[in-house]
Fold this sequence. Notes:
Blueprint lengths: L1 E6 L4 H11 L4 E7 L11 E2 L11 E4 L6 H11 L3 E3 L6 H10 L4 E4 L5 H17 L5 E8 L9 H18 L4 E3 L13 E8 L5 E8 L4 E8 L3 H14 L5 E3 L1 H10 L1
Parallel strand pairs: 1-2, 1-4, 2-3, 4-5, 5-6, 6-12, 7-9, 8-9
Antiparallel strand pairs: 7-10, 10-11
Helix pairs in contact: 1-6, 2-3, 4-5
Amino acid sequence: MVKAILHGCNGKMGRTVTQMIAEDDGIEIAAGIDLYDGVQNSYPVFQNIADCDVQADVIIDFANASAADALLEYSSSRGVPVVLCSTGLSDAQLRKVQETAGKAAVLKSANMSLGINMLLELLKNAVRVLAPAGFDIEIVEKHHNQKLDAPSGTALALADSMNEALEGISGTAYDYNYDRSVRRQKRDKNEIGISSVRGGNIVGEHEVIFAGTDEVITFQHTAFSKAVFAKGAVEAAKFLAKKQPGMYDMADVAAAGQQA
């Protein structure tokens, strides 16, 4: 049985993960971390992760990015693997993630959905064919009106995935264009446009458009509930527990599932 610490246990995602783990025989929550104590939990909850004295095999993180420094310090000092789901990390925090991976297993993904991570691979194949044929690339992402960062980490991950493939075939990466209103000029052929929509309670929608001459090809992923992210995080935690230090991603989780 994998024992997990849930970092950000009383937030919306934390509560979803708690419910999902309660129905999973392969993992249990040993302790939670959250500043808010207005939720009744079946496990002990600490306001500061540094005060947590409960032994665990892995940490699942769905807390605010501001709490990442203390989390990474805890993981690094104790060698506890961490599934890092927080978005909007600063450059300094991203460097700390790399440092932590030298002392503990770290799985970081901009989106924990298994479907999104499959889409990342599909886009690499698509862009190798369509970009040289002159197709323009646009990404439109839609989220609820409470989301703080824009564009979403997932939209950037989709763009980065395609750019990785583009650099492999041409040696040149595309630029990202977030706002065409600031300049009046034609679209650059070597750019990826990224647009953000915020409204209502949209959980998450990402559309990648390849627009060519007389034809358009669209890839779209829609999340109808936060459960898709919770499911991916739980599977990642079971995979990461007791792994050796290093950086991992959801592709490793998917590969392990195929071999099982």
